[in-house]
Amino acid sequence: MGSSYLILILVTITSVVASSDNNQISGSAGHKHSDVNCLSWRVAVETNNLKEWTHVPASCVDYVRQYILGDQYRKDHDMVVAEAYKYARGLNLTGDGKDVWIFDIGETTLSNIPYYARDDVSVGYMPFNGTKFDQWVKKAAAPAIPGSLRLYKQLIKMGYKIVFLSGTREAFRQPRIKNLKAVGYTQWMKLILKGDNDHGNSAVYKSSKRRELEKGGYRIRGNMGDQWSDLLGSNPGDRTFKLPDPIYYIA
């Protein structure tokens, strides 16, 4: 995951699949807690006005849990996807195989919600446990995020070349390939993972990889991720699309 803080949300279930209409927990979008307006906190996070935060406020843990497991998270995600599709459909591709669309992986194309829901992980909120998360990645069991999978298939039909650009370490290439293909991401031009010689935080690392793509003659027509570090920095592409994610922050 690179330089990161993961906020593990207390969940009362043991398995959640992001695409399921079951196990929804609906809550009021304007719900307030005593010390923080949690809706305002989430908006500040998503707009990147609140930066380098290390944990969800204790009084907002339940609010964020309800948001992620309820239908609003999927609606917010689907709205971004719909706008991305509209944009992509309106471009005139050259047909030379150089028009690229970049996807992040975690919380962009694959969901880690089942990991957060585990009894040995979801004990409130705490700093990221790299060892446990690596074990989860090795299982190659993350479900697809439905809106992103739908967009991915539409982009391929339109002639875009797909690049997955992730902070996942190179050592996990085979589990990542297995997981992506198992849930429907069956083809791509490049799967870029973080090698031992890749240094710097996520924004620096991803900027360098995008720069390499453009030096290779590729045109980054779209770039989609759940973290601002997926989208900021140099060579971001013609247009970026930020997906919702109020559960962790990656610098």
How many strands appear in the DSSP assignment? 7
Helix and strand element order: EHHHEHHHEHEHEEE
What is the level 1 CATH name? Alpha Beta
Distance between the termini: 10 Å
* Number of discrete helical segments: 8
Helix content: 25-40%
- Biggest sheet strand order reads 4-3-2-5-6
CATH architecture verdict? 3-Layer(aba) Sandwich
In total, the number of domains comes to: 1
CATH topology: Rossmann fold
Give a description of the structure.
This protein is 35% helix and 14% strand. With 251 residues, the protein is an alpha/beta fold. The protein has a single domain, classed as Rossmann fold (3-Layer(aba) Sandwich), CATH 3.40.50. Strands 4-3-2-5-6 form a 5-stranded parallel beta sheet, with helices on both faces. Helix 3 packs parallel to helix 6. 41% of the residues are buried. The N terminus is likely disordered.
Topology:
Layout (H helix, E strand, L loop, with lengths): L3 E3 L31 H9 L14 H9 L1 H19 L9 E5 L9 H4 L13 H10 L6 H13 L2 E9 L3 H10 L7 E5 L7 H14 L3 E7 L14 E3 L5 E3 L1
Parallel strand pairs: 2-3, 2-5, 3-4, 5-6
Antiparallel strand pairs: 1-7
Helix pairs in contact: 3-6
